[in-house]
Amino acid sequence: MSDTLLVERDGPVTTLIINRPRAKNALDNATARALAAALRAFEADEAARVAVLTGAGGAFCAGADLKELGSGVDYFPWAGSDEGPLRAPLSKPVIAAIEGHACAGGLGVALFCDIRVVDDTATFGVFSRRWGVPMSDGTTVRLPRIVGMGRALDMLLTGRAVGADEAIAIGLATRKVARGTTRAEAEALARQIAGFPQIAMGSDRHSTYGSFDRDQAAAIRREMELSLEARRQEAQAGAARFAAGAGRHGKFGG
User: How many domains does the chain have?
Assistant: First the structure.
């Protein structure tokens, strides 16, 4: 897409790499727009099933480029504008591979993803608190839904750093892997997810995201409605594979 946003494809897995390591992969406006375009291209690619989002050079994303902002160039909302890269969940899964800083708007980028894979260098935080830069990347909405209101307010109000182990403990990070292996582990996970029957996986994911906008009864009705296509196209065939012996003795595959 650009020198600062790299895209690599391996079968059904698309890997997006923020490539501004000298700035800890902070997003200037051009790179934020390139990220939005890359996510739209992934969404539109019928052969692409799962994306991995990561950063180059040992950092994930340090948020908006404050040097650009300080020069008088305003940044556009990444979640609150139609052209923003973090406007709404995609129809397909995105996995974050996080090493180093995922702070300020970079925390928002991580929260946009379905799964967050970290190593022991990962650090989360609303570090923009000290500079008076507000969140416009979905953090104030997504963070409480993931870690709970109390923990979210603690992070948002204090701007404190949250390391990998605490992130795992509070549910902010999903999996911790060996140092330097987050991209490889995330891509392996992406290939596993890409190998599953896609209709049922997609309907369960869509139901989960949509449940926040409905009361419990309406959310359960929506779950049932979304399940119908998978029940027609995938469930009986999958049950027949199980009955024939697939998946026995701890074997887990698509």
Answer: 2
At 135 the pLDDT is 83
pLDDT at 39: 97
CB 125 within 8 A of CB 159: yes
pTM, whole model, 2 decimals? Answer: 0.87
Q: For residues 184 and 207, state if they share a domain.
A: no
249 within some domain: no
Sequence-distant (6+) residues with CB within 8 A of 121 are 58, 99, 100, 164, 179
> Which residues form the domain of 81?
5-194
pLDDT value of position 67:
87
3-state secondary structure of 142: helix
DSSP label at residue 67: H
- Which residues share a beta bridge with 18? 5, 55
Full DSSP string of 68-118: HHHTT-PPPPTTTSTT-TTSS--SS-EEEEE-SEEETHHHHHHHHSSEEEE
Do residue 128 and residue 236 come from a single domain? no
Whether 248 maps to a domain, the answer reads no
Q: For residue 168, how many other CB atoms are within 10 A of its CB? A: 16
What residues of the chain score a pLDDT lower than 50? Answer: 254
